[in-house]
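Justification of resources, computational component.

The compute hours requested in this renewal are based largely on the per-chain cost of generating structure records like the one below. Each record pairs the submitted sequence with a full structure-token output. That output is archived, and it is also reused by downstream analysis tasks.
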Amino acid sequence: MITVSQTIEDKLAELEKTQKNYWNIARETANFLSILIKSANSKNVLEIGTSNGYSAIWLALALKETGGHLTTIEYWEKRQSIARENFKICGVENIITPIIGSAFDVMDEMIKRDEKFDFIFMDANKAEYLGYFEYADKMLEKGGIIAADNVLSHELKVKPFVNEIKSRPDYQTEILNLPAGLLLARKS
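The structure output for this chain reads:
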């Protein structure tokens, strides 16, 4: 477990009580992603689906250690407004760029600007994972990692995405039996 201040720990514990309301990832998954970002020394991370900011806080805390930055996309203004407040409370707002809008529109603009990421975390509309992947693949650096939550809890909705990424010879893929299921794929 990462060492965090009591204020941050209190905020994370508070957000965990609303996990079902905001569709947040489990603490075990958040901690695993934090370890992974630090181990891979990720610097430029994209999150698709901010919600109330729970996972973004974990990602940002890991990025504080690597000297990295998080860009997070949320469709709903109300959720991202809550997330921004949570980022301030946890002292990570200076390494997070929150963007409001359709993930497809935002990622399309990122591709036009040739933005690249070394880690992409997908946790938004499960039925749209395949579409997110089509954009993410264009932005992910070689050696970069895609992580996708809910691949077991929403197996049927994410099946087209899972089938596609597993069929790709340029991705090494594994599904981890963390709460809700986490797919990890490394681009070669």
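The radius of gyration is 15 Å. The first strand starts at residue 44 and ends at 48.
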